[in-house]
Write a structure and sequence with these properties.
- This protein is of the alpha/beta class.
- The chain folds into 2 domains: 1-31; 35-114, Copper binding periplasmic protein CusF (OB fold (Dihydrolipoamide Acetyltransferase, E2P), Beta Barrel).
- It has helices spanning 3-31, 106-114; strands spanning 35-45, 50-55, 60-64, 70-72, 86-94, 97-105.
- Strands 1-2-3-6-5 form a 5-stranded mixed beta barrel.
Length: 115
């Protein structure tokens, strides 16, 4: 096999690999869109690791959290961030289930800005 034939064969294999794996990665990425909801924590359930956030328009969002969820401005969900806290939550949604990526205590951020 000549160098040119080997090069074309390698190039074709590389293109196939990129198309095969690249399309799969793009589909996965499209599912991981991050949404943001701002509102007041209506309830926290530590057992199921879920909280209900009521947005300004009245809609209620049930959002679960994991060990990977980051918390800014509060000790943790259920302690520093609890019922009545003003929060901003970044979350992803898959199959109708919302999972928090990050939670920010908006009440503390506002208080610091005013001081």
């Amino acid at each position: 096999m000549s160098f040119r034939s080997k090069f074309r064969l390698g190039l074709a294999a590389a293109i196939i690999a990129v198309l095969t794996f690249g399309v799969g990665q793009a589909a996965t990425w499209a599912q991981d869109v991050v949404h943001i909801v701002k509102g007041v924590v209506k309830s926290v359930d530590k057992d199921t690791k879920t909280m209900v956030v009521k947005a300004a328009d009245g809609t209620e969002h049930t959002i679960k959290w994991t060990d990977k969820t980051t918390v800014e401005g509060g000790k943790e969900i259920g302690k520093g961030i609890a019922e009545g806290s003003k929060v901003s939550v970044k979350y992803t949604e898959k199959a109708g289930e919302k999972t928090a990526v990050g939670v920010k205590d908006a009440g503390k951020a506002t208080a610091k800005a005013v001081e």
